[in-house]
Write a structure and sequence with these properties.
- There is one protein chain.
- The chain is mostly helical.
- The chain is built from four helices and no strands.
- Helices cover 81% and strands 0% of the residues.
- Helix 1 crosses helix 2.
- The relative contact order is 0.06.
């Protein structure tokens, strides 16, 4: 396994159409595979899911997950705002009932 720095250098050279030796090409392919596996893990996917899904399906699935997460965050924000308003109302009611001490 090559270091991340070497992988980045090889990737940079490959994207600039610079020639790579057979060994460097193998190292770069292994580096890509390692990074792909890490990304799959972050997305909660396994290798068998990736091989069955086209790239477009993967993008669509990721967008659906993002959309669902965004919707849930919006719902939570609305619930939090409702609770804040209720909390403020209750504080006002309590302040009227409890005599102020100075």
């Amino acid at each position: 396994m090559i270091t991340d720095a070497i992988g980045k250098q090889l990737h940079d050279r490959a994207t600039r159409d610079e020639p790579l030796t057979a060994q460097e090409q193998t190292q770069l392919k292994e580096w890509y595979t390692t990074h792909d596996k890490a990304e799959m893990k972050l997305l909660g996917l396994n290798e068998s899911m990736i091989t069955r899904m086209s790239l477009q399906e993967q993008v669509t699935a990721a967008l659906e997950q993002l959309s669902a997460a965004t919707k849930r965050l919006q719902e939570l924000a609305e619930e939090n705002e409702t609770l804040r308003r209720e909390n403020a109302t209750l504080r006002q009611q309590v302040s009227r009932l409890v005599p102020q001490t100075a």
